[in-house]
Design brief:
Length: about 80
Amino acid sequence: TSAADPHLDALDEAAMQAGLRGTPPRLMGNAMLRVTYHYWFHTGEILAIRQLLDHPRRPEFVGDLESRASYRASTR
């Protein structure tokens, strides 16, 4: 992930609004959110399995999302 940080840090609003080819076509920003949420979905599945197996030291919360990744309305 550290190798991707310089590229991701360089993305500005214009880059996030850029279209990506594909079916269906998506904006870069929407695609990045989709990948993040998909990752979290599978993390939740893994944690559910760990809970069923009674594994110790399971994380209980992803963090302070309200302050670190709060919703921002589009300026469109």
